[in-house]
């Protein structure tokens, strides 16, 4: 999925999830379900992606393991931005909820991912100042790890914002 090969990754993740369930090993279910939801969205299967992320959110809420909730909320927002009939307002709500949860957990990496997704959404809505205001302070808190894909994506977006480079609609979900 991370290499952009959603069609190849979807069956692999489904098989892995089935194997985990058969062996009653559920530790990786949330991570694999999240990746599968993102892959389904990348493959243009937004209805399936939304169903998968909703199922995963419900599973996490039932288990009370809310540690991953900021990322799940971000993923749901991202899926909503890339569906054939995107709902930017609803997506923004999920991004804002994700950002709030990540701040409460002091989860800086998830704050960065969400701030990047939200900034992209606002950029495509021509809200450049708001996009810069949400992303720049989170990015500035990092002191290392600048070779990571999340920090590189954030830096690239900040550069676009500084130069007022337009962004394509489908780019709103990438982190």
Secondary structure tally, helices: 8
Average of pLDDT: 88
- What is the radius of gyration? 16 Å
Bin the helical content: over 70%
General form? globular
What gap, in angstroms, lies between the N and C termini?
13 Å
Content-based structural category: mainly alpha
Q: What would you note in describing this structure?
A:
This protein has 175 residues and is mainly α. It folds into two domains: 64 residues, no CATH class; 103 residues. It contains eight helices and no strands. Helix 2 runs parallel beside helix 4 and helix 6 packs antiparallel against helix 7. The protein is globular and about 50 Å long. It starts with 5 loop residues before the first helix and ends in a 12-residue tail after the last helix. 37% of the residues are buried. The C terminus is likely disordered.
Write the layout of secondary structure elements.
Blueprint: H1 6-22, H2 29-42, H3 46-63, H4 69-82, H5 88-104, H6 108-124, H7 128-140, H8 149-163
TL;DR?
The protein has two domains: 1-64, no CATH class; 73-175. 71% of the residues lie in helices and 0% in strands. It is built from eight helices and no strands.
Provide key terms for this protein:
2 domains, 175 residues, 71% helix, disordered C terminus, mainly alpha, single chain, 8 helices
